[in-house]
Amino acid sequence: MRPADLLNRLHGEPFRPFRVHLSDGTSLDVPEPGMVIVGKSSAVLPSRFERDEEGRRIAARWPTISLLHIVQFSDLDEPTDGHGRQAKAG
């Protein structure tokens, strides 16, 4: 995946929350565009969320993912096929 592919999805108007599917079968949800940092060959994506004292969603864990391991995007409202492990979204 190229950085532009991820950036285009993040900056699409209107933004639609989406799921990033990785080559190892895991997936990460992207509920807000500001939660992702895109570099030349990698991206920092939230993989676990918590709620702050006012109930707002915050990232609790954010691994760095190689862009080469991103295989596809899907909208969050699309059902998953049940074969991959999915990171928890809180």
CATH architecture classification name: Roll
Q: Tell me roughly what share of residues is in helical segments.
A: under 10%
Radius of gyration based on Cα positions? 13 Å
Q: Examine the coordinates and then state which fold CATH places here, giving the name of the CATH topology.
A: SH3 type barrels
Fraction in beta strands: 35-45%
Low-confidence stretches: 82-90
**Biggest β-sheet, characterized?**
3 strands, antiparallel
Number of strands: 8
CATH class: Mainly Beta
Gross morphology is globular
Please provide the ordered H/E string of secondary-structure elements. Answer: HEEEEEEEE
Structural class: mainly beta
Spatially, the strands of the biggest sheet line up as 2-1-8
Total of domains = 1
Q: So what's the oligomer here?
A: single chain
Helical segment count? 1
Mean pLDDT: 87
- Cα(first) to Cα(last) distance is 27 Å
